[in-house]
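[Automated response] Your request has been received and processed.

Submitted sequence:
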Amino acid sequence: MSEKLELMAHLMRRAGFGATREELEERVQVGYEATVEELLDPESQPAVDRWEIMRYQPWAFRSGTIQNFGSAEWLQAMIASKRPLQEKLALFWYMLIPTGVAKTDHYQNENRRIHEFKEIGMGKFEDILLATAKSPGMLFYLDNIENTATAVNENWGRELLELFSMGVGNYTEVDVREASRAFTGWTYDLMLPRGPIGRHDQDFTYKPELHDDGEKTFLGQTGNFNGDDIIRIILEQPATAQFLARHLYNFFVADEVQVPAWGVTPPRDEDAVEMLADALIETDYDIKHTLRVLFNSDFFKNARFEKIKNPAEIVVSTLRMVGGYEKPFPGLGDMSRQYGYMGQDLLNVPSVEGWHYGAEWINSGSLMRRINFTADMFGDASKPGVQNIINRVKQGGKLSPEQLVDTCLDLMGPLDVTEASKTELVAYAQEGGDLDCSSDDNCEIRITELLQLIVSLREFQYA
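Generated structure:
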């Protein structure tokens, strides 16, 4: 049971945002493979009503307040969703193919991209790239609205190749130019000026009079290519499967080096990346199938606590675990800024390269933010999730300091901490002696303080 529970906890940390002990125990009864299939079939679970937030906080999307509300809608969905992999995959795609409001100044377009990723994120990579190329947010962010036959703008064409599909070293500057020519005329209808109801919606439009109809040679193929053809040719390249497979491994399995180093640094697990690349090629880049291969693989099952949680994972997993945040709540807008304080301002990437990850999530400032946030949450015994943990501890009866620490580590993960960390936790627990909640008025305080120490540990920062 313990091994099955630990494996299920691992799956839910990676394919979602963690789970309470009660949920893990229920899923263990269902089985690992069956849980994977449920996660891969989001339609089998009820969707979050995206408009529910309007009933609780109708002012949220008014002009002048949406800028302060930011990614609150997405945060609430990540907390409440019964489709955790759908939300996690939207985060994957947004981190891989990002845009940012610092340039677009259009939160509605950013949220539109998130919902699009939720709808098609488990489908074919071709559809995801095409949807991105036609996204008003991306058309503006990488300047394709300025890309015309008489004035070719290479920003979108370059980043499509470098950061979104193939990686440096697999194309030439001529390929960048020719790809950019193929996307000329891909634009959107101009939005009206800002008014009392905020930004107006934009929709993709193709303007043939702005398109370069000349012959183009791209990655060794010649023809009168349009953007659709460029994406098709990109997907025919083995480098594309390798690039996407490495991103999937990095996000769901174990931290890699930063993307700019991939050209000179081999994958952490070349066999695993090769397996994922093969799965992509064999199914025309079917993401659902590839994730099924990934989650059922030995390399995934054995990669426990090999990833540092990104700030969104820290915030969402903590709020899901302590409970009480399933409905839109007062302070949701402020809560949605927490991961920004930790270095990941969702919907506002620092650059088109996205965020650096792994160890680079951690510095003295961001680590303090992480610890303070999680300690504050788990120190509140009124939270239903915290109260559930307290009640589970109480069920153990009289506990020695060592037993108390082991019980809390088990309920919080299960977490496997170093001997040094374990010694420090036991030393704290020993200050109060044995825990007997039937007679100890400070029982809940002792438990919540121990939980606060646990979430401050290095091990808690890993998924």
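Summary generated for your ticket: Residues 379-461 form one domain. The mean pLDDT is 93.
If you did not submit this request, please reply to this message.
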